[in-house]
Amino acid sequence: MRLIALLILVTPGILAVYGIKLIRDALFGELQPLFLNLFIQGLSGVFLVVGGMGFIGGFILHRDRKRNKTKGRFESR
Fold first, then answer.
1. Which InterPro entries does the record associate with it (predicted)?
2. Pairwise CA distance, residues 71 & 30, whole Å
3. By CB atoms within 10 Å of each CB, which of 1, 14, 22, 24 scores lowest?
4. Structural domains of the chain, count
């Protein structure tokens, strides 16, 4: 069960790292063969970074709410 949870957290992390690579390549003008335009490559990199970090942050917030470690600041109303 812990292995599945680890895979659920590692996969968005890997996607976020790939998104950073796409952004870096778009800034330096290196087009990946999957994309048609540098702008589309950079925009998809931003989406991957924001999505991956948002998923990991949401997971950590959910876990902390469940264990009552948020000190009332992020409690749902």
1. Uncharacterised_YqzF (IPR020138)
2. 46
3. 1
4. 1
